[in-house]
Amino acid sequence: MNQRPNWRERFFPERQIYLRSRGRVRFLTLRLGHQIGLVALLVLGLAGLARGAYEVVFQDSLLDARGIEIEILRTERHHLADSLDTTRQELVRANDELASGYSKLQELIEFRSKLRSDLDATSSILEAETARRQKAEQRGGRLASDNATLRRKLQAAEQRSADLARKLAKLELEVAAAGEDRDTTRNRLAASLRDLTELRDKLQTALADNRRRDARLATLAGELEAKRSLAAQEAAAGERLRSRLANLEAAYESAKRKSAALTAELTEREATLAGVIAQRDRLADTSSDVSSRASELLTQLARTTETAALARDALHANQSRLAAERARQEGILQERDRLRRAVAELEDTVDIIRRSQTNLLARVQEQTLAGVAVLEDAIRLAGLDPDSFVTEPPAETIGQGGPLTLTGVSAGAADDLGSVMSDAGQIELILARWSGLQAALSQMPLARPSDNGYISSLFGKRRDPFTKRKAYHSGVDIAAPKKTPVLATSAGTVTYVGSKGPYGRLVEIDHGAGFKTRYAHLYKTLVKRGEKVQFRQKIGLMGSTGRSTGSHVHYEVLFQGKNYDPSDFFEAGRYVFKGGKDDG
């Protein structure tokens, strides 16, 4: 029975390949092992071709995805730039509004201080006027008291005048009765009438002199009292009355002395006619005394009436002054109330402005802090310290403080203004930090050096492609087809162009703030040393010059002479372009 062949003999039987050349025939025997080896090589070749085709297709899709991602990043970058411009404009407007608010607040505070000063001055004037009013009321009270006293004295004088009038009437009756007796003796006195008439003329002359002297004294006293009334009308009425009474009493005593002297002289001359002269002397003395007393009483009554009239005029004048003073004080009180209302309204306005400025400062501070946080996170993602990019404030702004005391400003207003200025100072510090970080971020190389390609070798330790040993890689390699454009990752100045050992053709750019970037293994450079380049400007074409295994660009990022991982900068760039939203 025949043995059934196995699968190897069935699929790989021994084969012979005949070769004919120059009339000679040769054959090549392909045994089982040779056939299996050839099939294995064929399978491996086909697998390699399939893998290559797959990589080509996958690389195209990867490049398409990278292109889409780059377009998205560009769009987000434009949006972020617009947002940054809008934020800058808002900050500028906020600063302008803040400055305007400061000036308005200062003007309002100065105006309120002026009103406070005017109110204080008005209050001082009002207090002085109140004191004057109280003094005037006191003087008015004293004048009223003096007026009442004068009225009582006037009533007493009128009563005395009435009494004197009654006494004068009685004396006139007595004189009339004595006149009847005098008629009976008139014939006997005819011889002595001439002497008596002469003595009477002398007596009347003396009395007239006394009256003229009294009138002169009254005139002088009136002038004196008029002058005194100009300085102090309130207390002059009583003094004038007492002065006039004293003058009248002095004149009366003088008249009495002169009358006594004349009476003595008359007595001496009428010694021969003792009885008649004595009777005549009594009648003459009685008549003279009555006339003198009546004249004195009439004069006193006239002067008392004049004094009372002056007192009434002074009282009316004081009442008019008091009424005018009351009206003036009412006007001052109304003006003070109006000023107080104006000050209250201004305080309300200042309070509204202060709250508005506080809210504005709070919003600006919140937005600025959010922007600063985004910038700080982006810088930290790049592996850097944000504080290294922020300069300290100048020395004149450090170590200063103390209570805010403004001349002519109340304590409450000074506290409000101090609070606003403190908030503004904090915002200025935050804005200064934001400006410093923004300036640093604008100089940081956050973009990829090529729109195409993929990272074929990372930063740090790696296996060297030539020695196959562990080595330090100072940048990242981005592989892409030959002559792919290489772009500047940030604006700056070209500091080196040319071949540099294992770097091959190299371009080095200084971006400022301590940042430098290097682009190596270029096929061709498109910039010159010292040239100013812009962000995303084409600086060369990708190649494989220098120590390289294929077309790629070796990209380095240096900060203050130290190499940093460019992938961290790419991540920071994506974070910034996405508006600070970390996808995690």
TrEMBL record:
Gene3D superfamilies: Glucose Permease (Domain IIA)
Keyword vocabulary terms for this entry: Coiled coil, Hydrolase
GO molecular function: metalloendopeptidase activity
Enzyme Commission no: 3.4.24.-
Coiled-coil ranges per UniProt: 147-213, 238-265, 329-356
Transmembrane segments: none
Residue stretches making up the M23ase beta-sheet core domain: 472-566
Domain called DUF5930: residue spans: 209-451
Name of the protein in question: Murein DD-endopeptidase MepM
Organism in which the protein naturally occurs: Oceanibacterium hippocampi
